[in-house]
Amino acid sequence: xxxxxxxxxxKNTFIKLKMQIEYLTSQILPNTxxxxxSVQVSNFLMTKAVSDAIRTSLGPHGMDKAIIxxxxxxxxxxGATILKNSKFNHPAAKLxxxxxxxxxxxxxxxxxxxxxxxxxxxxxxxxxLKKGISFKNIMKxxxxxxxxxxxxxxxxxxxxxxxxxxxxxxxxYTALESKVLLSHSHIFAPLAVEAVLSITDIQYSSDVDLNxxxxxxxxxxxxxxxxxxxxxxxxxPSIKSSGGxxxxxxxxxxxxxxxINAPSTDTENVLVVExxxxxxxxxxxxxxxxxxxxxxIKATGCNVILIQKSILKESVTNFGLExxxxxxxxxxxxxxxxxxxxISETLGCIPIVDIESFSExxxxxxxxxEEKNFCQEKIILFYGIRFSKNKANTIVLxxxxxxxxxxxxxxxxxxxxxxxxIIRRRFxxxxxxxxxxxxSSILKNFSKTITGSNSYIMISFANSLExxxxxxxxxxxxxxxxxxxxxxxxxxxxxxMVGINARKGIISNMLKENIVSPLLVFTSILNISVEFSLQxxxxxxxxxx
Length: 545
Hints:
Helix content: 40-55%
Distance between the termini: 33 Å
Number of strands: 16
Radius of gyration: 30 Å
Strand content: 15-25%
């Protein structure tokens, strides 16, 4: 009887949910001839709900989200990080997570904006469908709007000279203003600019590999103590248990992928020792083999060894460490396999797979290799690398707690991505909602030259773009309706760069206020949000496999 009651209860709950969806659909589309089913309504409403939840995190005065999972807490206002660490069961919400990841991987910034715009476009689509406009017309008009917007973006953008570090600094500063580390933007913005430019050929480079900027987080100290190191840093300590050195001048560096210990058979064997003299002989011979290996290493002039982590056995024995320390060789062991390729290319050395192939031509060279302490945590630094295949540098982030360090890393990565976006496409546009308002004004003017439903859809598309300045003003505590109406007036009068200065809570020229953003970031936001909206418009049913 208990099971029957539970089944009846579940069945009643399902019927109630189904009735609610049918009622919601009938309220949204009173005309029953329109082909919009409950699945499509559910997709639109879920996307709008997630977008509205993320909206409060947009801009300098955006709120942070605390995400709790597995007894861990994450505090951030980065859109991609929020969605990536949230659990969603609805397919439309999962698609939103994917587009935020795409935006993050492509340009690194604008992850919150792309979610907010996507929700706005889908809300607009729902209103257009309610008025009886077909899917086909909406999709066609959205594509026209996107093409027109991208053409207009090129006209209103401003070229950037990479030798002008101030422009790059202001762009990075603007990106950091919406982060938790707003009060430390003056520290991280110059660090990001210097880090990128130091590994970039300004004249010929069209891209930057951010993997060449290694970020090391060290707990302790304050954010102000974060700094840039013009060289390579690896997050490993040197082995000094046997009294080895911790600083080497005129270093010759080897990366070895073999173990410094006595040889062993390829298959599992049992060695039977009959007497103590035989055992002593075996131990003496093992030591002689290890000494021979260490002497051969020293004969090449090598004085720094990086040993790859071994899976099957210990990478270096205690006797091996003792012998190497007597030969004044700095030893770093258990380097992860995934890092070997990057380290070897940066140091200009070739990984050595066995002692027989150990030779001087495979060594890298650096002016100084030393170990540095950070509150009882240690890293190895390489200065003056001479024959590097890749230019690289290291950022050491300091912080009082792990949450702050994690957020500092995310914020700094966004700043690096912004500088990379400018190098990829050397144009900037105004921030503070100015570019969205200008595009809205251009599209509304263009809509007057066309007729029919296309004109109406274009006006709706233009109004959807205004969600960004609307949200910025709302989060800054301003009256959004008053702000939007004033911005419309400014842009109709030809003031293309006027937007919202959320720092001061006023409307002003974004270029004069140094609130700017890379053209590539906004182009990516526009492309991804429109493509996502068109993709969701085409879905009319969800099937389980």
